[in-house]
Automatic annotation (TrEMBL):
Molecular functions (GO terms): hydrolase activity; RNA endonuclease activity; zinc ion binding
Record's keyword terms, sorted: Hydrolase, Metal-binding, Nuclease, Nucleus, Phosphoprotein, Zinc, Zinc-finger
A GO biological process held by the record: maturation of SSU-rRNA
Domain of life: Eukaryota
Residues in coiled coil: none
Any single GO CC term annotated in Swiss-Prot or TrEMBL for this entry: preribosome, small subunit precursor
InterPro entries according to UniProt: NOB1 (IPR039907), Ribonuclease_PIN (IPR033411)
Domain Ribonuclease PIN as annotated: residue spans: 12-98
Primary location class: nucleus
Protein name from the UniProt record: RNA-binding protein NOB1
Protein purpose: May play a role in mRNA degradation. Endonuclease required for processing of 20S pre-rRNA precursor and biogenesis of 40S ribosomal subunits.
Length: 140
């Protein structure tokens, strides 16, 4: 994906995949931020090398408890909570917090437009389906 911007964003919050897959981050944002959880997710030697030699200053900043609570509650209302990791929530909370600090809240929703209910069902191993990438042993 090519991103062509005439002006850099002032504050860019990035998750783990952003650091590992987007080396041109400094061309997108003036100030690059992340949370400590993202730094801790980088575990392989090659990934650590990429993170250590970033061509820009990385600001590690933690979101406030209030921002984490807001994102957690909002994601529960949208039905997304169960699919988010703690790191995802913290990255979104930092984004939310910095939006409040630098832009304000008048353009942000405090409630989702529509509540969703996500139902999880357990697949029976009695009648396994062919799912590419998964092995389901037959019961004997």
């Amino acid at each position: 994906m090519d991103i062509k911007m005439t002006e850099k964003v002032r504050h860019l919050i990035v998750d783990t995949s952003g650091f590992l897959n987007r080396p041109e981050l400094r061309e997108i944002g003036k100030n690059i931020y992340t949370v400590q959880n993202v730094v801790e997710e980088v575990t392989s030697k090659s990934q650590i090398r990429k993170l250590v030699v970033l061509p820009f200053d990385l600001h590690v900043k933690e979101p406030s408890d209030e921002s984490v609570k807001f994102i957690t509650e909002f994601s529960k209302k949208t039905g997304d909570y169960h699919s988010l990791s703690a790191t995802d929530i913290r990255v979104m909370a930092l984004t939310y917090q910095m939006e409040l600090e630098h832009i304000g809240s008048s353009h942000l929703r405090t409630e989702p437009h529509e509540n969703r209910t996500v139902n999880f069902t357990k697949q029976s191993t009695e009648s396994p389906r062919d799912i590419i990438g998964f092995y389901i042993p037959s019961k004997k």
